[in-house]
Write a structure and sequence with these properties.
about 5% strand; mainly alpha; three-stranded antiparallel beta sheet; 7 strands
């Protein structure tokens, strides 16, 4: 078992350049090790194809004892020593944001892995056994021998729905962010800038904060020889890309910088962090703080919409998350800009990903077909 642990740690080191990727890979390998040791009582190097299939079935519907109802740290510090957290579990049941607000708790007895989770399990395990194969610890990759993955994966005939807010909801959110910034600039000018960046530049939340990959700086806004502004970012998969900075985004940047006592626009190689901590110096490093800023704005917009008699739209906004703003920005832009331009700004690997956003809004789609005549 110690040998399994050492080789797994060696495998995971290759993914420590991105905390999100590392955590995802560690989670899958951790589950495999726990199952192999505790259920099968043998090394992961001795697992065959049929063993991996049993593990996949186990991971899809694990025993309740293996499922937690919230995310907790794996270890605790007690008396200066690191000890296992008795509440940690390899699998975690979750509930939606709205259910949490209504006081609901996750039901561990009904946990079932999503199709996305099963796909991730296959991908990580296949990479792990390829690594073991290269190290000479196994003769074949047992995951690659599983030819009928359809036993575990459902074929999706319909493209997954792009989760986004409506144009009306976005107008309320933006107006709310402006009002918050006007009322409390010290606290919410940053909120207003974040909302603009997430929508207008389709940024992922991880691309706004400093981590082991990069630290977003004001100097990442750069002007080319044609006087056009671009934002340079290191994104998903450690891939660098440049994003068009629109006139509205440039205005938002000027307002944000002036609120911080800076010049309207950054000079080349400006070292100031893009987002700073609310207290103290240094760049913002927590995506949780960004989520909190956005959620506060969503909540305030929700109350304003209800006050305007828009209960239906207000209720929909309750389910929105930070990532919905990226989806919304892309969805709005594909209506107006060439798809390949949107693809490059969004950092999509293929046009097929961008094409998911071409489909009309489901509410608009239903409204247009609701009263279709059967005869003239």
């Amino acid at each position: 078992m110690a040998a399994d642990y050492r080789i797994a740690a060696k495998f995971l080191v290759a993914y420590d350049g991105s905390s999100a990727t590392f955590n995802a890979y560690r989670r899958e390998i951790e589950r495999l090790l726990q199952w192999s040791w505790r259920v099968e009582s043998r090394s992961v190097c001795r697992l065959a194809r049929e063993d991996i299939e049993r593990f996949i079935r186990f991971a899809v519907r694990p025993p309740v004892a293996w499922v937690g109802d919230r995310n907790v740290a794996r270890f605790l510090i007690r008396g200066g020593e690191t000890v296992p957290n008795p509440h940690w579990r390899p699998f975690v049941a979750t509930v939606s944001k709205i259910e949490v607000r209504n006081g609901s708790r996750a039901d561990r007895t009904h946990y079932e892995a999503s199709q996305a989770s099963v796909r991730a399990t296959f991908a990580v395990l296949s990479s792990f056994y390829d690594f073991l194969l290269e190290e000479g610890l196994v003769d074949v990759n047992p995951v690659a021998l599983i030819r009928q993955r359809s036993k575990f994966l459902r074929i999706q005939h319909n493209a997954p729905v792009v989760r986004r807010i409506t144009r009306l909801q976005w107008e309320f959110v933006l107006d709310t962010a402006n009002a918050m910034a006007d009322r409390d600039p010290e606290r919410h000018e940053r909120t207003l800038f974040v909302m603009h960046a997430l929508f207008a530049m389709y940024l992922r939340i991880s691309e706004l904060v400093a981590d082991e990959r990069s630290c977003p700086l004001m100097g990442d806004f750069r002007k080319d020889q044609d006087q056009n502004w671009w934002f340079h970012v290191t994104g998903k998969g450690n891939k660098d890309r440049t994003i068009v900075v629109s006139e509205n985004m440039l205005s938002a940047l000027k307002r944000y910088r002036l609120s911080r006592g800076l010049s309207p626009l950054p000079s080349p190689n400006d070292p100031a962090p893009l987002l700073t901590k609310a207290k103290g110096r240094g760049p913002l490093t927590s995506t949780r703080q960004v989520r909190r800023l956005v959620q506060e704005c969503f909540d305030a917009a929700f109350e304003r919409m209800k006050a305007h008699g828009l209960e239906c739209d207000a209720d929909d906004l309750q389910a929105a998350t930070v990532h919905w703003l990226r989806h919304t920005g892309i969805s709005e832009d594909v209506k107006l800009r060439p798809r390949e331009h949107v693809r490059d700004d969004a950092g999509h690997a293929t046009m097929a990903t961008t094409d998911r956003y071409v489909e009309s809004d489901r509410r608009e789609r239903h409204a247009s077909g609701k009263r279709k005549p059967l005869r003239e």
